[in-house]
Design goal:
- This protein is mainly α.
- Helices cover 54% and strands 0% of the residues.
- The longest helix has 15 residues, at 36-50.
- It starts with a helix and ends with a helix.
- The model has no long low-confidence stretch (mean pLDDT 86).
Length: 79
């Protein structure tokens, strides 16, 4: 399962998604037009695509696409 590609695809595919290149340093914040509702939608779609749910407290501190990928990879490794 390619976690990184899945996360990036979900970010790019959201209706209000950014029209820029998405990589590990892509910031998931207001400076990219990603507000809290967009972030919740992003996490829900990634969870559905990967079949893995993360607790809210784990994703609350995520600031970049790379950090989100790392959390999902850790979760997969721990299963």
């Amino acid at each position: 399962m390619d976690v990184e590609a899945t996360v990036y695809r979900v970010i790019a595919g959201l209706p209000t998604g950014p029209a820029v290149d998405i990589g590990p340093d892509f910031r998931l914040g207001d400076d990219q037009g990603i507000d809290s509702l967009f972030f919740v939608e992003l996490v829900l779609r990634v969870e559905a695509a990967l079949g893995i749910a993360l607790p809210d407290e784990e994703v609350a501190g995520v600031r970049t696409a790379g950090e989100l990928v790392a959390l999902y990879r850790q979760k997969l490794a721990g299963q």
